[in-house]
Amino acid sequence: MMPVVLRIDGKRFFFYSNESQEPPHIHVQQAEKEAKFWLEPVLMAFNHGFNGPELRRIERLVFEHKHTLLEAWNGYFTD
């Protein structure tokens, strides 16, 4: 299962339901491209296919929505 937290600009922000052993993070996918960002602090963990400008835009979105993303993570894995 992949709980989707946000959809922005054709990008899907989600995490996998079996990732509770990892620190809070979010996957971002658009078409065949995917990146993963840690949330505390916000840092890119990996990138497969996004170019520099796209990654900067995604990082800004992760920062802007960090509270929502963390709430979703914590709500899913601690409730």
Query: What structural class do the secondary elements suggest?
Result: alpha+beta
- Number of helical runs? 2
Low-confidence stretches: none
Radius of gyration, in angstroms, nearest whole number: 12 Å
Shape: globular
Overall mean confidence score, pLDDT: 96
Largest beta sheet: strand ordering: 1-2-3-4-5
Number of strands: 5
Proportion of residues in extended strands? 35-45%
Helix content: 25-40%
- Amino-to-carboxy terminus distance: 17 Å
Order of H and E elements: EEEEEHH
Largest sheet: 5 strands, antiparallel
Assembly state here? Answer: single chain
Provide a quick synopsis of the model.
The protein is an alpha+beta fold. It has helices at residues 52-64, 66-78; strands at 4-8, 11-14, 25-30, 33-39, 42-48.
How would you portray this structure in words?
Helices cover 33% and strands 37% of the residues. It has helices at residues 52-64, 66-78; strands at residues 4-8, 11-14, 25-30, 33-39, 42-48. A 5-stranded antiparallel β-sheet has the order 1-2-3-4-5, covered by helices on one side. The model has no long low-confidence stretch (mean pLDDT 96).
Main features:
79 residues, alpha+beta, five-stranded antiparallel β-sheet
Secondary-structure map with pairings?
Layout: E1 4-8, E2 11-14, E3 25-30, E4 33-39, E5 42-48, H1 52-64, H2 66-78
Antiparallel strand pairs: 1-2, 2-3, 3-4, 4-5
